[in-house]
Amino acid sequence: MDLLRWNSIAGDLESAIRVRNNYRNVLLGGKRFPCTESYSILLGLYVHKGKNVEAVEFFKRLIDEGVNPNPITLTIVIHHFVRLGKLDAVKEVFELLPLMRMKRTLKQYSILVEGFSFAKRFDIVKILVEEMHWIIFRMRR
């Protein structure tokens, strides 16, 4: 996993994919698949490199292979949608998280607040900030 992470930090997508595929091939013999973290690392690298179509396809493959996205993976997806200006789509994804039994994180809220603020959609910003307030309030209890 460290080699995958190092290649990602270096921005070397091809090497990161090769490491993941080698790792995956070893695990397939034992009927296991790479952990969600490896998918999150590569998904983040696709997004960082601006490979939008590939990032979406990779995320679909993640789901098809039965990997459950974790909050880090979903934060990457949310950030990706915001960068693309797909605010209505990201809002739908964000609203689905509790239905998937996924907790919304303050990082996800921050990304959304920034995106909707930039788009001057302050009605949604207000709702997000109020929800953030309740999360922080519950954390302090």
Automatic annotation (TrEMBL):
Gene3D superfamilies: Tetratricopeptide repeat domain. Keywords: Repeat. It comes from the Eukaryota. InterPro entries: At5g66631-like, PPR_rpt, TPR-like_helical_dom_sf. Pfam families: PPR_2. PPR repeats lie at residues 35-69. This is Pentatricopeptide repeat-containing protein. It comes from Thalictrum thalictroides (Rue-anemone).
